[in-house]
Amino acid sequence: MGNNNYIDPEKLTLLLEDQKESSKQIIVKHFKSSETVRDIVLGVSDGLTVPFALAAGLSSADVPSSLIVVAGIAEVVAGAISMGLGGYLAAKSEAEVYNSELKRKNQAIINDPELEAATTAEILLKHGIEPHESEPAVKALRRNPELWLDFLMKFELGLEKPDPLRGLISGVTIATSYVIGGSVPLLPYLVFPIAREALIASVVVTIIALMIFGLAKGYFTGSNPFKSAILTAFIGASASAAAYYLAKVIKH
């Protein structure tokens, strides 16, 4: 009579490899979408808020709209470069951490395979696979070092292989989002030559944009869209009001 608890190592290896490929596609799609949303949120939120506050502050100083546009454009360009570079470096750092851990774990498998085999068995036990069931699974993984390494990186360290283009994509996405967001509060100053008139239009347009952005952010991040809209608009309005009255106090 056969052992019902026996797991065919060859079948297990094929199953893990198939699962690896299918789950990789799902994970890559999920991470790319979530990371892109995060980058867009970061770029647009700062782009809407910082130039808005700068324009409001300069408006209180009674400077012409043309000067505010020049200063605003300079800030948007500098901010986009800074934010984009920050996103690029952050993604590069994540890739460096992953590669460092990958080398360390690969060396650990070579130097002390028994310890790593015990670690693998512990991981499987946490997922409800008993020792007598996990033994053939561990043996199957040990015969496939690449699959074993991938298994330990995911389930022991919780690390996924980053996209090699992630840094570039992140930097460009954040910078572009910042420019798009930053152009909104500056547009009224291109229409109205008097700064105070442009400020009123800028406040209305930017608050509407912040609320729409807040709704979209809430929808994509899974939070309450209306609460997100109100909070986003409140933060942007608070920043611009603080800049406006601070400039007034300094002027007087």
From TrEMBL:
Primary site of residence: membrane
An individual GO BP term: intracellular manganese ion homeostasis
Swiss-Prot/TrEMBL catalytic activity: Fe(2+)(in) = Fe(2+)(out)
Entry's localization field: Vacuole membrane
Keywords carried by this UniProt record: Ion transport, Iron, Iron transport, Membrane, Metal-binding, Transmembrane, Transmembrane helix, Transport, Vacuole
CDD domains given in the database record: CCC1
One Pfam family hit: VIT1
A GO molecular function held by the record: iron ion transmembrane transporter activity
Domain of life, source organism: Eukaryota
InterPro entries per UniProt: Ccc1_fam
Stretches that traverse the bilayer: 168-192, 198-216, 228-247
Recorded topology in the membrane: Multi-pass membrane protein
GO CC list: vacuolar membrane
Metal-binding among keywords: yes
Family of the protein in this entry: Belongs to the CCC1 family.
Role this protein plays: Vacuolar Fe(2+) uptake transporter.
Subunit details: Homodimer.
Domain notes: The cytoplasmic metal binding domain (MBD) is located between transmembrane 2 (TM2) and transmembrane 3 (TM3).
Name assigned to this protein: Vacuolar iron transporter
